[in-house]
Amino acid sequence: MRSLPFLLLFGLCSMTLLAQNKSYTLSLSQAVTLAQDSSYASLNARREMTRALKKKWETTATGLPQINGSITYNNNLKQPVTLIPGEIAGGAPGTFTPVIFGTEQNAAAQATLEQLIFDGSYLVGLQAAKTFLDFSKNAYEKTQIEVEKSVVNAYGSALMSDALVSVFQNNHRALKESYRELEIVYQNGMAELESLEQLEITLLEVKGFLDNARRSQLLAYHLLRATLGVPLETELILTDDLNSLVLSASMPGSSESTLDLNRQIDVRIAENFKEQRRLEWQLERSRALPSFSAFLNYSTQGFSDEFSFTERDQQWFQSSMLGFRMQLPLFSSGFRSARSKQAKIAWDQAKTDYTQTLQATQIAFENAKSDYSLTKDNYNNALRSMNLAERVAQKNQIKFDQGLSSSFDLYQAQSQYYRSQQNYYTTLLALLNAKTVLDTFTDPQTF
């Protein structure tokens, strides 16, 4: 039995460690789905949309019946005195007699029902609340699109860092083996010291590439975790291959995509904003209209010289009242007119912004197509350049082994090959990102 507390403690520690070391195995589409559900930006965007729903109900509720109640209790520690003519109480004319009216204590309970009948600003407010909700939904969709682009970039960067680490590890391993073989040849007097030193320079350069790639790998995975909205200690296992993703991104047809402005989120948001400004103008104009409301009041009061309001024989006096209220905005010294004109100017500005957004979206689409075509060409050129540089490096290695070329020629060929590898993976990621940006214009459901 003494071991029971230890076992419980061990179990709790194990559960804590499992919770802290949670891991995810993710494809790119799964990573996008996870980020759109749990990323910080998505969480706040959903909260903002929920807030808009509550705001809409708040506006709606102002036109529904409102009931307010109150309970009051008064204890006149020193009752007020009223002076009455003395002759009323049998005194001499011209004198006054002090008297006290009422009881020392009183209590009252009251309830009032109010109902708005007509108010122009309320009707406009209902429309504005709906527009605000539409705006929040579109803002949420835009956030999800931005999250998707961020995940593609972060996921691709993590895959690229993995690939570069693997490439430079293989390069470093092969160069290290070549260095050991050349060192043996040099010790036997069959190679020059310069050749060994030149190979050592190349080895150190590749070691620097490898160390930098490992640091970049750590940062890339931290960035991906932050983009997904998971703790930085979370283990991530990425199942997609960067080359296969880019292969699908480089399929023909993307550069010939067409733009549907009605589906563009920025255009829809600008349209929401324009509608909001129009309703604000109508709201200011509606303030010149009369408003009508009705109310029903009920109250009960009790009076006593002692606190007897909780007793059954306490006497209560009821009263009730039904009424209607009309408010007429007659004269404001130009205040309402000035506010209305300001709102009209803001609406005109929103209409201009909407037109500008249409043009900016068209320009951004053309830039996205151009960037995609350019990065696709760069990717093809980088792939061809890397293949050529690899063949050149292999030929120089053979020539160097046969004594037909210098160590400097070998160093140049290998350095050129290593740089072409880095450039190739950089263009891989650039092509994937360019395809994602273009798809946000042509196909919101990228994955």
Notes on the protein architecture:
The protein has 447 residues and is α+β, with helices and mostly antiparallel strands. It has two domains: 22-63 and 120-290 and 335-442, Outer membrane efflux proteins (OEP), CATH 1.20.1600; 80-118 and 294-327, no CATH class. Helix content is 64%, strand content 15%. It has helices at 3-20, 28-38, 40-61, 120-187, 193-228, 242-249, 265-286, 335-401, 407-442, and strands spanning 23-26, 66-75, 82-85, 96-99, 105-118, 235-238, 291-304, 316-327. The strands form three sheets. Strands 2-5-7-8 form a four-stranded antiparallel beta sheet, with no helix packed on it.
Q: What is the CATH H-level superfamily of the largest domain? A: Outer membrane efflux proteins (OEP)
CATH fold annotation of the largest domain: Outer membrane efflux proteins (OEP)
| Helix residue percentage | 55-70%
Q: What's the number of domains? A: 2
The arrangement of helices and strands along the chain is HEHHEEEEHHEHHEEHH
Tell me the overall shape: elongated
Return residue spans where pLDDT drops below 50 for at least 5 consecutive residues. 1-20
> Strand arrangement, largest sheet?
2-5-7-8
Output mean pLDDT: 85
CATH class of the largest domain: Mainly Alpha
Q: Number of DSSP strands?
A: 8
Question: Describe the biggest sheet?
Answer: 4 strands, antiparallel
Strand content: 5-15%
Give the end-to-end Cα distance, rounded to a whole number of Å: 56 Å
A few lines on this structure:
Helix content is 64%, strand content 15%. It is α+β, with helices and mostly antiparallel strands and 447 residues long. Strands 2-5-7-8 form a four-stranded antiparallel beta sheet, with no helix packed on it. It has a two-stranded parallel ribbon with strand order 1-6. A two-stranded antiparallel sheet has the order 3-4.
